[in-house]
Amino acid sequence: MQMPRLAWATDIHFEFASVDQIVAFCQTVIAAEPDSLLITGDIGQAQSIERYLRALDKALPMPVYFVLGNHDFYNGSIVDVRAAISALAASSAHLRWMPEAGIVRVGEETGLVGHDGWADGRCGDYAASRVMLNDYRLIRELSGLSAPARLSVLNALGDESAAYFRRVLPEALARYPRVIALTHVPPFPEASWYQGRISGPSWLPHFCSQAVGEALLGAAEAHPDRELLVLCGHTHGGAGVEIRPNLRVVVGAAQYGQPVMQDVIDVR
Ligand SMILES: [Fe+2]
Ligand SMILES: [Fe+2]
Q1: 60 C-alpha vs ligand 1 centroid, how far in Å?
Q2: Comparing C-alpha atoms, which of 34, 35, 52 is closest to residue 43?
Q3: 118 C-alpha vs ligand 2 centroid, how far in Å?
Q4: Buried b (16+ CB within 10 A) or exposed e, 105-127
Q5: Per the confidence metrics, is the pTM higher than 0.90?
Q6: Of the candidates 98, 80, 102, 79, which has an alpha carbon nearest to the alpha carbon of residue 89?
Q7: Which domains does the chain have, with CATH numbers?
Q8: Which of 2, 58, 111, 126 is the most exposed place for a label (fewest CB within 10 A)?
Q9: Res. 2 pLDDT band, cuts 50 70 90
Q10: What is the pLDDT of residue 199?
């Protein structure tokens, strides 16, 4: 019997791609003959994300398990986009938004979980950082805030994802020897590569989710006999880091305007 195969893509940013590139992306995925496609966020923006997901739903003959990235909320709000995506996934045969899909069986021995995740401002030096991501102008919940007020929102977004992982991971790891966790933002500084090196103290607050990292590490350490693979994106700087012997983080390498499939993963 053939092992299940999972295609993985991240930061495909379809708003920067031509229709031909989007079609070519879908053809690449179909040609790989995966059982499912995993996407770890930054698919479009608030006004376009539903359209892009519908296009993927129509073009691809397999389930699409995804989380949302910060860009997916640009020119809109987190609460509105999440509500729209929740409704879209509920009415679709193939689209599965991970925070609502829960623990998904993708192989006899492999489970899948995921949450959007957010850079929570806790790694690096937020107070000294002059980095002003577009997030802080273009996402309603984050715009027009003072730096300290923005930090509380970033903390809360990170905590929300961490709480989700704390809730589902014990059960997922009890059920499956191997669990794949999808999230948008690298959960450890070592995995947060930007422009060829580990992000410095100014960028880390915006490029790493410490709260999610702590939740993942806690789960991996509580289940040393289980394996946890984390797939993420956001920094666009490809990286593969072994945080613990049973906790590996892979960050996709991405370029605006060039949506690609990162990998095809065989699962047991
Ligand atoms: Fe991105
Ligand atoms: Fe991102």
Answers
A1: 22
A2: 52
A3: 9
A4: ebbeebbbbbbbbbbbbbbbebe
A5: yes
A6: 98
A7: 5-266 (3.60.21.10)
A8: 2
A9: confident
A10: 87
Region 243-258: mean pLDDT is 97
pLDDT at residue 123, as a whole number: 97
Using a pLDDT cut of 90, give the percent of the chain over it.
97
Instruction: Please tell me the number of Cα atoms within 13 Å of 266 on its side-chain side.
Output: 3
Please give the distance, rounded to the nearest whole angstrom, from the Cα atom of residue 224 to the centre of ligand 1: 32
Q: Are 200 and 133 in contact (CB under 8 A)?
A: no
Give residue 233 CA to ligand 1 midpoint distance, Å. Answer: 7
| pLDDT at residue 176 is higher than 90 | yes
Tally of residues, the chain: 268
| CA–CA distance, 70 with 159 (Å, rounded to integer) | 16
CA gap 117, 210 in Å, rounded:
10
Please name the residues in contact with 82: beta carbons below 8 A apart, sequence gap of 6 or more: 68
